[in-house]
């Protein structure tokens, strides 16, 4: 909860000055074409800002600025401790502007202000601080070559990092890429999702205020098929860090092959299983977290626990607990601090979710929810929805819906639970609830996913890598491991008289 009231948040939202221009080479600029697109609040339909519609011409300018900055060393050759000082200041500035950053995300894509101000915006400050503090504590290697030779194995920044991110955590997805890439000494050109460009633009402005030099952090808003593709195909982009759908992640791998073989790091979709055994020691906690795991952020979470496997003897009792929690999470005005769920990002996503719900009403048992709602006659909202008796082959159990829809499936044995959980093109995350340590470890061995959470859901922190297996992609954000994708190994040999 926040200490501000609904009325306070509405007043602050009305008073916001929103910038929609691109941020290139240290300043706000219009798109070269002069075109703009509307940024729309999905909770009300109101237009928040006219946003510069960047395309290949703007990406060219931004990449050129980023490359100039990288080549002259204004950031790339600064001592790590100097980059650290600037990024710590950026973390402080995000904290000083926490309400504004939270409001931009809440208004732009519909998440609740409570989540934005307690999770997303503080998270952004924390991740910048974490990489700032880490970067002057990492040592390179000396190879064991013997007398007469000195071989250094150094980690060096790559150059220009392109980052393309989705709309579900606009500030945090931008931060996950930019914090590690900038700490490592790269220049960055970020393309935010067209549904949610506002917080990334403000972030770039704050970065400049903190002392990130001109050209080092550029943000070009625009559409995927134009600006995103131009970044993916650019000959002077050295690395492309992508978070978004699996289909677009595959496109970025093609763009790389069609251009300069840039490294591509896709972090893509998910359909995460959550497995509850009858020997779970706290079924109330499991039900709390199962509901959170699928309805948090309106279900628009890549690692959302959207497939719930429950051991048959506890199925009906567990469902009852779950329904009670779903009913308590009805959507409301995102700016009302008491709202547990906000608005769906746009009409297209709403239609997609409702399409799955309509299909599910024919193929499975609707236990609760299933209806689109409006708040004060406006906006795109969907009730928390639970289907039981879902077949493993049903689209409800196979496809990433990216909305507040849970599919519940019964199982009889551990082996069956593992087989069904792994039966998915995705492998981002999984959760297991059990009081049996051996079973927890066996399950974590055999679940083919990037993160297994035992007796919780979706565990995540700056200290641990986040990313997937199979068609959830192979990029990793967070932790020191994320620095690997933004650096290259350089070997330096020196001869001396031994
Ligand atoms: P999306 O793939 O449609 O868009 C993501 C980004 O790619 C946007 O910036 C978009 O403009 C750009 N894009 C779209 N088409 C493009 C094209 N043809 N060429 C180049 N760029 C293009 O995804 P979305 O709808 O914004 O986000 C939802 C998806 O993101 C879900 O699949 C979700 O699982 C995934 N996601 C994954 C993670 C993770 O860490 N694995 C985290 C959050 C979201």
Automatic annotation (TrEMBL):
Pfam families membership: Aldedh
Keyword Oxidoreductase on entry: yes
InterPro entries linked to this entry: Ald_DH/histidinol_DH, Ald_DH_C, Ald_DH_CS_CYS, Ald_DH_N, Aldehyde_DH_dom
Residues covered by the Aldehyde dehydrogenase domain: 28-492
Keyword terms of this UniProt record: Oxidoreductase
Source organism, top-level taxon: Bacteria
Stored CDD domains: ALDH_GABALDH-PuuC
PANTHER family the UniProt entry points to: ALDEHYDE DEHYDROGENASE-RELATED
Protein name (database record): Aldehyde dehydrogenase
Organism: Roseinatronobacter alkalisoli
